[in-house]
Amino acid sequence: QKGDILVTIMTNPDMVVTMQKCSGIITDEGGMTAHASIVSREMGIPAVVGTREATSKLKDDNIVTVDGFAGKVYEGKLAETKQKEVMQITSKTKTKIKVIVDMPNFAERAAKTGIKQVGLTRIEGIIAELGKHPNYFIKEGNIKEYEDAIYKGVKEISKFFDEIWVRTSDIRSDEFRNLEGSPKTIELNPMLGLHGIRYGLKNKEILTSELNALKRINEEGKKIGILLPQVISVEELKETKKILDKIDFKNYKLGIMIETPAAIQLIRELCEEGISFISLGTNDLTQYILAVDRGNELIQDLYNEMHPAVLSQIAYVLRVCKRNNVETSICGQAGSKKEMVEFLVKNHIDSITVNADVAKEISDYIAEIEKQIGEEPRQYTNE
Q1: Dihedral sign (CA 185, 167, 331, 235)
Q2: How many domains does the chain have?
Q3: Is residue 86 situated within a structural domain?
Q4: In the chain, pLDDT over 90 holds for what percent of residues?
Q5: Banded pLDDT at 338 (limits 50, 70, 90)
Q6: Which end of the chain, C or N, has fewer beta carbons within 10 A?
């Protein structure tokens, strides 16, 4: 029911509709980059994840207070609901600030920042609201309905912004198995399985539909950036370009997510093949470099985006991209952490994509850092 607290082992994208009704989330599993954490921040609702025992201790009709700021759950009603306010940014900086917007219903909230660029839209949020897996539309012979749904969702988000970078679908089998029409195959390791751009290129009808939807929005006057997830080869970039040429999509920026060690090792070749921008997907990049499952609460103490191995790889990517005039950004949750922001600004990243509720705080902090290192402000971040 609307206003209830959702208590579950772990949330998945196919629970998005339910999550929009609740006033708080408590999970047994997960960490700061788990699905529940990511979505709750966009929705502006409190969440406490990785409790290990919530589902066994809490029962229906229990009254609890969820303190998302402190990461604690209290018995009884101790306070009124308080949502973190989204504030308009005012600082003047060289480093641009962009926002994360995954769900159409929360685009207006993000727009309260005054920011006009979306640095990441994951279309899985739109897919989850459909209740149907992309495979469903292929089986039913109605892929145009899928294209229309993606078009409608992204267009609703784009109403509030001038430019939007959209990631093509990254649908893991374990996260979307409850959607109608989802594959029944159970992968032993879904995180390393058939998802991201490898899935799109094996299912070109689905990828083509997503790109057609973005083309339609672009033709209506919106600037579109296309982000390819889980890239591990130059060939994936080339194959995607062939599809873009085939559908005669011309006025776009093409970028890749830097979230695999392969993308780091091949960054020079990827730049030379021709990309407009990269975005650091630190959620997955960190777990792949450190071999630490970001969703496993038992080893969250080892999951660290500021690990020297992670930072050295990020710095290398930024240097290579600068030499090749490729725009650089970050869209992982680490972009909302001050220690990472300082590292990125000092390494001359072009933009930082954050959750709307921390946009002003991060913008003000960037201004402080740029002042310390002598960077001259060039523009307002919301221009």
Answers
A1: positive
A2: 2
A3: no
A4: 65
A5: very high
A6: N
**Which residue has better confidence, 82 or 288?**
288
Which among 41, 75, 109 is the end of a domain?
A: 75
Residue 13's domain comprises: 5-75
Q: Quote the pLDDT of residue 175.
A: 80
CA 178/CA 180 separation, integer angstroms = 6
Nearest to 296 by CA among 3, 2, 9: 9
Same domain, 56 and 119: no
CA 249 to each of CA 63, 132, 133, 151, 215: distance values in angstroms, whole numbers, following the listed order: 53, 27, 25, 15, 6
Q: What is the pTM of this model?
A: 0.86
Answer yes or no: do 60 and 118 share one domain: no
Structure tokens at 20: 């929009």
Specify if 301 maps to a domain.
yes
Same domain, 38 and 170: no
Looking at the annotation, which residues are catalytic? 35, 331
- pLDDT per residue over 185-194, tens digit each? 889 999 999 9
Instruction: With both helix axes pointing from N to C terminus, report the angle between 267-274 and 308-323 in degrees, rounded to the nearest 10.
Output: 30
Same domain, 242 and 340: yes
User: Minimum mean pLDDT among 19-33, 164-178, 206-220: which range?
Assistant: 19-33
184 and 43, same domain (yes or no): no
- The verdict on 33 and 98 lying in the same domain is no
297-333 pLDDT, tens per residue? Answer: 788 899 999 999 999 999 999 999 999 999 999 998 8
Domain CATH for 108 = 3.20.20.60
Asked if residue 266 and residue 320 are part of one domain, the reply reads: yes
Please indicate, yes or no, whether residues 156 and 184 belong to a single structural domain of this protein: yes
| CA 330 from centre of chain | 10
Beta-carbon contacts of 308 under 8 Å, excluding residues fewer than 6 positions away, are none
Please enumerate in sequence order all residues whose Cβ is within 8 A of that of 349, keeping only pairs 6 or more positions apart, or say none: 95, 318, 328, 329, 330
pLDDT of residue 378: 45
Q: Which two tokens stand for residue 172?
A: 């893991």
pLDDT of residue 32: 65
In a domain, 14, yes or no: yes
Beta-carbon contacts of 352 under 8 Å, excluding residues fewer than 6 positions away, are 95, 96, 97, 98, 119, 329, 330, 335, 341, 344, 345, 362, 366
pLDDT of residue 174: 84
